[in-house]
């Protein structure tokens, strides 16, 4: 998930080819494709929708998304419905080779039969066929052998469709289905195990589900009701607003969520976003992970007095204060507040460091503010300056690292240096 908003591609996705006009199955499938965010991985910036070729880094090398247009030679035009469903539920292509789990088939396996059939109708009849050859991965042999993936699937994947949970109402179950299935939120927001598998695939799998995970050099926050770290301080309305507009009065989307909102959630029905919010707010916090921000020290008062003696103060004033203000409160829906921001709460340094280094841009949405306010990157700063300004920001807004450090191992100091500076050159 390393791409900014593909405006043209999304427009083409929403405006289906004329031959599909008025087709109920195609229209239903288009909605499933939007909820599943298929376009994000299967379209390169400036390329034809769903023609593939997008590079995605894995721990063992770079793979490239495949052409999923109905082209007969290089796409999926020759797939029967059973072939299509097998690929999405079991991770097995028509010719029998195993797909890499960068394709979130462990989540897509939960699609209902009706949604799977609608999605097939959309890709076969509502998408333009593009004859674009697939690009092989650059994973070296023997790591490139795919037969071990069959064993991986047996251990870590269930191909059973989603089943409504007894005792939960229709809205909760709809939210659970969207989050666990087509939305594949766990692909980014759930920690992974030693086999690079998601440690949990749904609500029933325990507290690891949506507890936060690293992806593409970012830390995708917890979506459970953890205070500070997750959604414990968010209302259902806050969640809906972020998914619809890409920002709230206090925070804004960054990293991969910019694309999720731009391609997917902003176009989803209001009732589906409300169901997602209802479901997420039902996820209990993880035991023993509560976090309460300490009161801020004199840092803000020192800035007001013109005292820049603390390490990082001058860097903050020079590069940060103009947008985020001297008190770190930002400007509602324009410049995110630093206080109470889960990217600043230091369970993991990845996102905070990466934002400082690479900057970011809010999504352009059709709802609310249309401008894509951007933060420039400051990769020109030295490691020492990055360390000092990150520590200064935490002091400014009253954040302290809890025991356990950024990696969750051992005992960390109250105001640590970032664990390491991510490399921006590693991105494809």
Short description:
The protein is mostly helical.
Mean pLDDT: 84
CA radius of gyration is: 22 Å
**What kind of sheet is the major sheet?**
2 strands, antiparallel
Strand ordering within the main sheet: 1-2
Secondary-structure-derived class: mainly alpha
Weakly predicted, low-confidence segments: 1-12, 14-22, 401-428
Shape: globular
What is the strand tally?
A: 6
Task: Give the topology string: H per helix, E per strand.
Answer: HHHEEHHHHHHEEHHHHHHHEEH
Question: Strand percentage, roughly?
Answer: under 5%
CA(first)-CA(last) distance? 11 Å
Helix fraction bin: 25-40%
Number of helices in the DSSP assignment = 17
Task: Explain what this protein looks like in three dimensions.
This protein has 428 residues and is mostly helical. Among the domains are: 1-153, no CATH class; 299-396, Cytochrome Bc1 Complex, Chain D, domain 2 (Orthogonal Bundle), CATH 1.10.760.10. It has helices spanning 7-14, 24-36, 38-42, 81-90, 105-108, 113-125, 147-156, 170-180, 186-189, 236-245, 256-263, 270-282, 299-304, 313-319, 321-324, 350-358, 383-396, and strands at 55-58, 61-64, 213-215, 218-220, 360-361, 374-375. Strands 1-2 form a two-stranded antiparallel sheet. Strand 1 and strand 2 form a beta hairpin. Helix 8 crosses helix 12 (270-282).
Structure characteristics:
single chain, 428 residues, mainly alpha, Cytochrome Bc1 Complex, Chain D, domain 2, two-stranded antiparallel ribbon, 17 helices, 4% strand, disordered C terminus
């Amino acid at each position: 998930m390393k791409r900014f908003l593909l405006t043209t591609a999304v427009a083409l996705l929403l405006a289906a080819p004329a031959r599909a006009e008025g087709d109920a199955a195609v229209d239903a499938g288009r909605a499933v494709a939007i909820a599943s965010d298929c376009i994000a991985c299967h379209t390169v910036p400036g390329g034809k929708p769903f023609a593939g070729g997008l590079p995605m880094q894995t721990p063992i090398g770079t793979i490239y998304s495949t052409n999923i247009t109905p082209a007969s030679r290089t796409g999926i035009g020759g797939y029967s419905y059973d072939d299509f469903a097998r690929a999405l539920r079991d991770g097995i292509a028509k010719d029998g080779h195993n797909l890499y789990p960068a394709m979130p088939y462990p989540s897509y396996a939960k699609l209902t039969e009706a949604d799977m059939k609608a999605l097939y109708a959309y890709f076969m009849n509502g998408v333009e066929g593009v004859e674009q050859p697939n690009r092989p991965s650059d994973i070296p042999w023997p790591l490139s052998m795919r037969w071990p993936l069959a064993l991986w699937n047996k251990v870590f994947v269930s191909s059973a469709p989603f089943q409504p949970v007894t005792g939960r109402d229709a809205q909760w179950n709809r939210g659970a289905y969207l989050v666990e299935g087509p939305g594949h939120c766990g692909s980014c927001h759930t920690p992974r195990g030693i086999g690079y598998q998601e440690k949990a695939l749904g609500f029933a799998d325990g507290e690891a589900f949506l507890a936060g995970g690293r992806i593409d050099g970012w830390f995708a926050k917890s979506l459970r009701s953890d205070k500070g770290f997750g959604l414990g301080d968010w209302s259902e309305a806050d969640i809906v607003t972020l998914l619809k507009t890409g920002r709230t009065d206090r925070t804004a989307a960054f990293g991969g969520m910019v694309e999720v909102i731009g391609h997917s959630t902003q176009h989803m029905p209001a009732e589906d976003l409300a169901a997602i919010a209802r479901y997420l707010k039902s996820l209990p916090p993880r035991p023993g992970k509560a976090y309460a921000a300490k009161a801020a020290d004199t840092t803000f008062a020192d800035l007001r007095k013109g005292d820049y003696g603390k390490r990082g103060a001058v860097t903050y004033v020079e590069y940060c204060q103009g947008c985020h203000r001297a008190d770190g409160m930002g400007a509602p829906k324009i410049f995110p507040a630093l206080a109470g921001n889960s990217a600043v709460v230091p369970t993991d340094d990845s996102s905070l460091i990466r934002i400082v280094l690479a900057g970011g841009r809010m999504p352009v949405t059709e709802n609310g503010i249309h401008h894509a306010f951007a933060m420039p990157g400051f990769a020109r700063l030295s490691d020492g300056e990055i360390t000092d300004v990150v520590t200064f920001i935490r002091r400014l807004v009253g954040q302290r690292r809890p025991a356990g450090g950024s990696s969750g191992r051992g005992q960390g100091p109250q105001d640590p240096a970032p664990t390491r500076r991510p490399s921006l050159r590693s991105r494809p």
